[in-house]
Fold this sequence. Notes:
The structure is a homodimer. By secondary structure, chain A is of the alpha+beta class. The first copy, chain A, has helices spanning 11-24, 31-42, 49-60, 66-78, 120-132, and strands spanning 82-85, 90-93, 103-108, 114-118, 136-147. Chain A has a 3-stranded mixed beta sheet, covered by helices on one side. The first copy, chain A, has a two-stranded antiparallel sheet with strand order 1-2. In chain A, a hairpin with a 5-residue loop joins strand 3 (103-108) and strand 4. At the A-B interface, strand 3, helix 5 and strand 5 of A face strand 3, helix 5 and strand 5 of B. Strand 5 (136-147) of chain A pairs antiparallel with strand 5 of chain B. Chain A binds a DNA duplex through helix 4.
Amino acid sequence: MSVHTHITHSGPALTEAARAVIEAAGEQWTDLRSDVFATLAAFARPASAYDIAEAASARIGRRLAANSVYRILDLFVANNVARRVESRNAYLVNEHPGCAHDCIFLVCEACGEATHIDDDRLGDALRGTARGAGFTPTRPVIEVHGRCGGCGTS
Amino acid sequence: MSVHTHITHSGPALTEAARAVIEAAGEQWTDLRSDVFATLAAFARPASAYDIAEAASARIGRRLAANSVYRILDLFVANNVARRVESRNAYLVNEHPGCAHDCIFLVCEACGEATHIDDDRLGDALRGTARGAGFTPTRPVIEVHGRCGGCGTS
DNA sequence: GCAGGCGATGTGATATTGTATCGTCGCGTG
DNA sequence: CACGCGACGATACAATATCACATCGCCTGC
């Protein structure tokens, strides 16, 4: 496991970091993309594309259609500034863009929050197991459903 | 990791094993459930509820609505005779029902097939990591997207 | 300046996936 | 037989995702 520092951003700094990543990838950082990113970042838990479309519409004062949101989310996910929570059909910002782990989401069945943890050993072990089965892994999906600390075990 | 034998069924024997599990759980094994199970088992890759509804309709010679299929699939998943592939919104039969692992799916991006592997060490490690983060895991979702052996690495 | 290319976005339609509600049927039981 | 109950049918609906095509702004070659 490589030793490295996570730079965790929030608020405007996070948006700025996302902009840098997108531009470094040769993509444009448009006003709309910025608005969608900020909208997504403002959610405390995974947000569906339609949630984002609605909130972003309010933010920018006009209707933003779901398909535009999907286009932008696809770009974000491809460039690792946002993540998709597969078991929820929803999205989260990546709080340390530029740091590409196989990430693990702990999804609380009670409050709906998803916390993101990194553990390279698990991702590496999973990739190794897959390769051992003659499979060439590209994208692991590792999510755990359960109860977060705040929601207890009951 | 416990030492045990996997009894892998196929065809009628698999359906029979599923029946036994469902009945042992105090649920009924109706003709319709049997038909839906056999229909699902006949798919070589993860099948959506609507795929199953269509194929089962053909099999039984009348329209079977999606909601009925969902009800039955929910029952199957709850009793571990079928599994849901979260990143595909699709279902697979569990070829060794009664053996409840945290299962891992290798989902081929080229041919769409999903192979099911077991590795208790990975599931246990993942649960342990989750607990280390103050989380009480109930259901891990472990899926890997990539290329299967038959589809190569290109 | 203007034509054309190109990426980003808008608009509307549509496809796919998943739920809710309510009625009916068959079956066991008092 | 009356009743309750689980399974199922039918319909509507909600939520998620994609497609096709038009438009707009910007940049470039001419």
